[in-house]
């Protein structure tokens, strides 16, 4: 059985193969970056991402995500998504990371 942390680490390794991709600490969390901008991090067995507002709103409305908190403060413009079971869950996280990266790369 693959854990959410293991899936995150696999996706992070894939992410680091992209030009301009990196990893750094943000609020004590291991964060994926692109062009110096934070795009995703692992938080309480969930993937937290900075997504376009329409995607974030759709995930929140459907109940597929919630807003992550750092301490007592909500992280505006970020959502946290659990890992669905099976290969479809891994592909979902992969697609969300790709969308977050694409949004961060836009001027």
Strand order of the largest sheet: 1-2-3-4-7
Structural class: alpha+beta
Distance from first to last alpha carbon: 40 Å
- Number of separate strands: 7
What shape does the CA trace take?
globular
Number of distinct helices: 3
The multimeric state of the shown protein is single chain
Helicity range: 25-40%
What order do the SSEs take from the amino end to the carboxyl end, as H and E? HEEEEHEEEH
Notable characteristics:
alpha+beta, 3 helices, two-stranded antiparallel sheet, globular, single chain, five-stranded antiparallel sheet, 107 residues
Question: How would you explain this protein's 3D organization?
Answer:
39% of the residues lie in helices and 31% in strands. The protein is an alpha+beta fold and 107 residues long. Helix 1 (4-15) packs across helix 3 (86-105). Strand 3 and strand 4 form a beta hairpin. The protein is built from three helices and seven strands. It has helices at residues 4-15, 53-62, 86-105, and strands at residues 21-26, 29-34, 37-43, 46-50, 69-70, 73-74, 78-82. The strands form two sheets. A five-stranded antiparallel beta sheet has the order 1-2-3-4-7.
SSE blueprint and pairings:
Layout: H1 4-15, E1 21-26, E2 29-34, E3 37-43, E4 46-50, H2 53-62, E5 69-70, E6 73-74, E7 78-82, H3 86-105
Antiparallel strand pairs: 1-2, 2-3, 3-4, 4-7, 5-6
Quick structural overview:
The protein is α+β, with helices and mostly antiparallel strands and 107 residues long.
């Amino acid at each position: 059985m693959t854990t959410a942390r293991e899936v995150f680490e696999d996706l992070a390794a894939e992410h680091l193969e992209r030009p301009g991709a990196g990893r750094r600490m943000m609020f004590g969390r291991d964060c994926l970056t692109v062009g110096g901008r934070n795009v995703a991090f692992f938080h309480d067995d969930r993937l937290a991402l900075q997504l376009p507002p329409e995607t974030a709103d759709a995930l929140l409305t459907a109940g597929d995500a919630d807003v992550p908190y750092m301490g007592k403060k909500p992280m505006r413009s970020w959502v946290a998504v659990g890992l669905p079971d099976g290969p479809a869950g891994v592909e979902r996280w992969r697609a969300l990371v790709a969308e977050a990266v694409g949004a961060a790369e836009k001027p």
